[in-house]
Amino acid sequence: MFGQGYQFWTKADEDGNFTIDNIRTGEYNIYAWVPGFIGDYKYDVVVNITEGCDINMGDLIYEPLRNGPTLWEIGIPDRTAAEFYIPDPDLKYINKLYVNHPDRYRQYGLWERYADLYPDGDLVFTVGISDYKNDWFFAQVNRKKEDGTYEGTTWQIKFMLRDVDHTGTYTLRLALATAHLAELQVRVNDPKSDPPLFTTGEIGHDNTIARHGIHGLYRLYNIDVAGVELVEGENIIFLTQAMNTDPLQGIMYDYIRLECPPSTSS
Predict the structure, then answer these.
(1) pLDDT at 266 over 50
(2) Are residues 198 and 247 in the same domain?
(3) In a 10 Å sphere around its CB, with 0-12 CB exposed, 13-18 middle and 19+ buried, how is residue 260 labelled?
(4) Residues 60 and 92 in one domain
(5) Which of the four, 28, 50, 132, 168, has the lowest number of CB atoms within 10 Å?
(6) For 149-198, how does the pLDDT look when each residue is reduced to its tens digit (9 = 90+)?
(7) Residue 4's pLDDT is what?
(8) Prediction pTM value
């Protein structure tokens, strides 16, 4: 509602039908999202709610974002990082309530386990070989160094291209499940390129990592990758979380997808 910030939520049934009751009088926008699809639906017309009204919205059709065929994807577009690798907790912090529990992420100190698992180098995910359930850490956090300070981390996604459309534009879609005082920088095939191909700037005050959650505010970034940036053979996307002043800064990914230019096969 304009100027007031009221929100009223519901969940559609399996046929897509929904009802929202007891809405305060005012002007509203309608937003929706569908598990399994990236992005948000927004109804183009402001809905005016008056006392006692009954409005049938008819069919609301969402067309998910897509520019071309999928080259590869990592994760499930469900706005959480629950499908990724969640490590066992440090035994000195373990909460027995969440041992063998579906919500494994509700253990204290899991952010420190990243440095235990990747003490000398960062995560490398190879498309077609790696499995995001086992090889993609659920949160991109800082690494604690021996002197007690922290350093940002750079993850790599390696993938092969048989043919490259050098005149076309590829689309990298990065959906984040949460961010806290983070900056995500994206580079392609050059880890030191300055400026990076894309940066979010500083984002997020979700505090999801500290509160042992698995999602916060959803963010979706759609990044154009010029075909001239890619090569036939192995390519690497570098994902750098650049803010490095404390252990709780970081991001959780929801879903990552690389799309070919329109009318291009992989």
Answers:
(1) no
(2) yes
(3) buried
(4) no
(5) 50
(6) 999 999 999 999 999 999 999 999 999 999 999 999 999 999 999 999 99
(7) 63
(8) 0.92
Show the tokens assigned to 75: 């994760």
Q: Which of 64, 93, 117 is the last residue of a domain?
A: 64
| Kind of pairing between the strands at 250-259 and 150-151 | unpaired
Q: What is the pLDDT of residue 264?
A: 57
**Same domain (yes/no): 100, 214:** yes
Supply the DSSP string of 199-249, one letter for each residue: E--SEEE--TTTTT-S--S-EEEEEEEEGGG--SEEEEEEEEE---SSTT-
The per-residue pLDDT for 92 is: 87
8 and 53 co-located in one domain: yes
Neighbours of 155 (CB within 10 A): 18
Q: Do the domain assignments include residue 266? A: no
Domain extent, residue 196, equals 70-259
- CATH classification at residue 215: 2.60.120.260
Q: Phi and psi for 110 in degrees, rounded to 5?
A: -65, -25
Omega prior to 195 cis, within 30 of 0: yes
Grouping H, G, I as helix, E, B as strand and the rest as coil, residue 92 is coil
Whole-number average pLDDT of the chain: 94
Enter the tokens of residue 192: 């030191």
Amino acid at 186: V
Query: What pLDDT shows up at residue 3?
Result: 45
Residue 200 shares a structural domain with residue 246 = yes
Residues 141 and 60 in one domain: no
89 and 30 within one domain: no
- Percentage of residues in the chain having pLDDT higher than 90: 88
Dist CA 134 CA 138 (whole Å): 10
